[in-house]
Structure formats: C-alpha cells, structure tokens
C-alpha cells in the first residue's frame, strides 16, 4: 500500500467541511487513544471548510481526498480553482469524485462540466455510489439493466477518451437478485454479477465498499440453497480484469442478532470508559470485525483488511480511501468525532503501508 495512495472520502467528515472554521471545539484524541478511551487529548477549536480541513487531513497522514460535494456550507462560496489551490497548499491531491451518477452523466452537458472540473482539480476517476437507475431499490427487470449497462459503457467511453475512468461504488441494492417475470432464469442471478459481466472492462471500473459488499452478501442469500454472494470471487474477477481501481475501506462490527433482511453491521459501538456521548463512539478503521476478519467476524469468508488488500491488487489510480457513514458525531456531545475518526483511521492505514504485499499496480503517470 503506497503511502501516497491513502485517501479519505469526504462523506466521512461531511460535518467538518460545512461547519464554520473554528466555530466549535472538540476532542481529537490523545496519543494513547483509542487504546486508552479516556485519553481524548485537549479540547481544541475544530477545523471547518475545505482549506482548514485539508490542512488537518494532511497533518495526520492523508495524501488524497475524494469528493462527493463541492459545497463548504457556512464557510461560504468557493470556486473549483480555489479548492485546487487549497489542496495544493495543504499537500493533498484530489483523488476522484462521487458526482458521476449514471442518469446525470448520460447528459452530454452535465458530463462535460464534470470533465472540466476534473481537469482543474486533477483527478482521473469519476463515479457514483448511487444505483444505476431511479428507485430504492431500482427496477429488477432485465430490460432496465440492459439499458443501464449500455449507458455505462457509453459514459465510460466518453471519459476514457479524455483519460478519466468511470466507476461504480456498489451499495447493498446492487446485490439483490433479478425480479423479472419474463426472465425467471435470472431469479438466482445477483444484479452486480450480471452488470459486471455485461459492461466493458475497458470502460467501466469499480470501487468496492468493504462494508456494503458484505452487508449485501448477508442480506440476499440464494433463494433456493441459501448460499451467499461470493465477494472474494467478485474482487478477484475485478482485479484480473484491471477494473478494481480503488477501495472504500469501511469498518464495522457485526450485530449479534440482526433483524432478518437488514444490514448486519453497525459502524458505532459502546466504548467502555469513553467519556463522551454516553460512551457511544464510531468504529475506527482497523478495529471492527470487518477489518480484523475471521474469526473476529463469524463469516470465514471475511478476510480482514490486510489479507484483502494483499490478495486483490488495485489498478491505476489505485486509491485506498477510508470511509465511515457514521463519522460525524452529535454536535452537542462529540463534534470532533469525524476528525478524530480520520486521525485514528489514518494511523491504521499508515501501519499497513510499510507491509510487503499490501499495494497497488501503479504506472509512473498514476503517481502524478
């Protein structure tokens, strides 16, 4: 894992980006945190807005920043050029964006605007965490998925022509089965498998989310034999086709008795002796059952982060992005949580960076 490929997804720290710089104070964790949950460090004014947050992220070891929005809320309007300048001053690079929803990207004007922004900020991957079509969940009909696969290839071709990769970040709905009375033969086919097989590997890439993939595996067992989606086989297929281009490294703990058909993971847990928010804290990257793998997790197919990153190699641009949906804490009781999560999670990632075998395939161009 190259140190210069460790990034963070903006969603994890969304409260910090939109909060006025210095308008709140919080705890970012002391030297012994989280091993000593009471070592919160001093109460400090919290960074807010792109420029201040970029400086903080760089100071704790991040190199890349993946956007989902270009709005900094209470910190006022900011141009793309100003965001680029703030990145440069902090020593960060823009790693990509999640502003590439498929039904938006098929509009040539929208797509060209996204390309123009990518050129200013310097990233070479545009994608989405959304479904390929409307609805939550979207249609389960083959005709719709055929249309979306064709659209994805068209968008991917347009971006490839200007040196940008188009990617999908599949969340749990993607792991559902088809539901099409006209095609009962697809009732045991996961939509993500079909989409992977029916899009061009040269044009459509993927950025898997470690938690959402495993939640999809658990939620949608085979309707006949109960078998689970083979996520490791899917990762291997993507890696072999050189379309595995980034990770969203999202840790969580397995819920002992989840409700049937629901996400069996939680990104928060009670931390003994933790003095904030009634003892409830976020799961930091590397401390959850997903990050540690089996037998900490009950599923033998959960490999843990070190083995996953070693076994399934990334292709360019090869980013390792930490992420948590539960990063922001309650503003009244733990406003520093998301930035503390970023700091602790970066330390874990940096601990992996020096290990042999934890890396990505990189061309010289990918390092620029």
Automatic annotation (TrEMBL):
SUPFAM superfamilies: Xylose isomerase-like
Domain Xylose isomerase-like TIM barrel: 54-341
Keyword Glycosyltransferase attributed: no
GO molecular function: isomerase activity
Keywords: Isomerase
Keyword Cytoplasm among UniProt keywords: no
Superkingdom in the source lineage: Bacteria
InterPro entries registered for this protein in UniProt: IolE/XylAMocC-like, Xyl_isomerase-like_sf, Xyl_isomerase-like_TIM-brl
Protein name as annotated: Sugar phosphate isomerase/epimerase
Organism: Solirubrobacter pauli
